[in-house]
């Protein structure tokens, strides 16, 4: 009888523990070790999001190096939300017929530039004829911006019958080829644009902000699985609230935020950025929670013109859901985003 009682007691304890674990929320979040992902990097380092979502929610961070990989993880159900650039988000939305994801907040504006090798002889747009120009990945945000800029200046890539060779290369490889003089230019995000200038004998040819109204264009935003948003709206709202508060803190404590950010990048990549390069890179971007919808729609048109979105311009009317963001902004006495 005693043995049966003890066995029953143990089973009861295990059952209670199992129920407690089963009731705990888990949120899996993607981000890149990059300065355009300031909120998740600083948030990881400080535990900011853990405090916001509460003890009953466990955060599992997932590290990615490119947008398409994060989108595939979202499709596979391996992550619930991710910080990501506009073009991978657009492509993921289109591939899923508008079902897979929603943009719920902005993260970064700006932070991308066209850099040429100092001794390449490139002085004006026409000098790009016959040149080798890199982008981080085919179809990514900078790749689309590069192709759109070439078209706007009457040039085509080799695959479209032109003479400009666009080479999708990881950012560290771009720096290596600059030093070897095997690459003429690159459209790169920060901090790599600054590194190409400081370490790769590069020269700023075009700050992409110069192409946009008020110099603002979305580089990174927060994307959530549409299913997770439907099933866990309070968890998402708590995350967005923390995201807004962290954005404000970063902008009002920039020296400290940059130090924390750089430490987190070192933890994830094994190498911190030189302080001067980090400071310079930050002058080319703005940390924000505004999703800058108009700039994404312009980028979507460029992506379509480049042949990445099929034969018909997609309907992106349901891509955004900033209801929770606006609720939080109004609660804080801020202006809602239209």
What does this structure look like?
The chain has 338 residues and is an alpha/beta fold. The chain folds into two domains: 17-110 and 216-331, 3-Layer(aba) Sandwich (D-Maltodextrin-Binding Protein, domain 2); 112-214, D-Maltodextrin-Binding Protein, domain 2. 46% of the residues lie in helices and 19% in strands. The strands form two sheets. Strands 2-1-3-10-4-11 form a six-stranded mixed beta sheet, sandwiched between helices. Helix 7 packs parallel to helix 8 (192-199) and helix 10 (233-252) packs across helix 14 (323-331). It is globular. The protein starts with a helix and ends in a 7-residue tail after the last helix. The model is unreliable at 1-22 (pLDDT under 50).
Write a concise keyword list for the protein shown above.
11 strands; 6-stranded mixed β-sheet; 14 helices; 2 domains; disordered N terminus; 5-stranded mixed β-sheet; alpha/beta; 338 residues; D-Maltodextrin-Binding Protein, domain 2
Structural class: alpha/beta
Number of domains: 2
Mean pLDDT: 90
CATH class of the largest domain: Alpha Beta
State the helicity in percent bands.
40-55%
Strand order of the largest sheet: 2-1-3-10-4-11
Largest sheet: 6 strands, mixed
Uncertain regions: pLDDT < 50 for 5+ in a row? 1-22
Layout: helices, strands, pairs:
Blueprint: H1 2-23, E1 25-31, H2 38-46, H3 48-53, E2 57-63, H4 67-75, E3 81-84, H5 86-95, E4 101-110, E5 112-117, E6 132-135, H6 141-152, E7 165-168, H7 171-179, E8 185-189, H8 192-199, E9 202-207, E10 218-225, H9 226-231, H10 233-252, H11 254-269, H12 275-282, E11 285-287, H13 293-305, H14 323-331
Parallel strand pairs: 1-2, 1-3, 6-7, 6-8
Antiparallel strand pairs: 3-10, 4-10, 4-11, 5-8, 5-9
């Amino acid at each position: 009888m005693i043995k049966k009682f003890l066995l029953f007691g143990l089973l009861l304890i295990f059952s209670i523990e199992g129920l407690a674990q089963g009731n705990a929320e888990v949120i899996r979040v993607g981000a890149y070790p990059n300065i355009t992902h300031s909120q998740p990097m600083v948030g990881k380092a400080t535990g900011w999001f853990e405090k916001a979502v509460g003890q009953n929610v466990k955060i599992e961070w997932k590290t990615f190096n490119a947008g398409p990989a994060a989108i595939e993880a979202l499709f596979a159900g391996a992550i619930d939300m991710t910080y990501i650039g506009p073009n991978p988000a657009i492509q993921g939305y289109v591939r899923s017929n508008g079902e897979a994801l929603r943009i719920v907040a902005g993260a970064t504006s700006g932070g991308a530039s066209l850099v040429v090798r100092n001794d390449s002889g490139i002085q004006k747009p026409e000098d790009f004829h016959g040149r080798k120009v890199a982008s981080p990945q085919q179809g990514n945000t900078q790749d689309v911006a590069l192709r759109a800029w070439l078209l706007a200046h009457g040039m085509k890539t080799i695959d479209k019958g032109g003479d400009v060779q666009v080479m999708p290369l990881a950012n560290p490889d771009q720096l290596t080829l600059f030093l070897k003089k095997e690459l003429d230019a690159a459209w790169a995000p920060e901090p790599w644009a600054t590194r190409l200038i400081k370490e790769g004998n590069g020269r700023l040819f075009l700050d992409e902000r110069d192409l946009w109204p008020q110099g603002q264009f979305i580089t990174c935003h927060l994307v959530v699985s549409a299913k997770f948003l439907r099933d866990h709206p309070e968890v998402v709202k708590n995350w967005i609230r923390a995201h807004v508060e962290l954005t404000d803190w970063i902008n009002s404590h920039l020296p400290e935020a940059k130090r924390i950010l750089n430490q987190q990048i070192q933890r994830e990549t094994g190498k911190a950025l030189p302080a001067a390069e980090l400071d310079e890179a930050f002058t080319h971007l703005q940390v924000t929670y505004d999703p800058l919808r108009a700039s994404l729609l312009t980028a979507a048109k460029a992506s379509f013109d480049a042949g990445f979105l099929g034969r018909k311009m997609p309907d992106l009317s349901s891509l955004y859901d900033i209801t929770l963001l606006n609720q939080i902004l109004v609660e804080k006495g801020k202006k809602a985003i239209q």
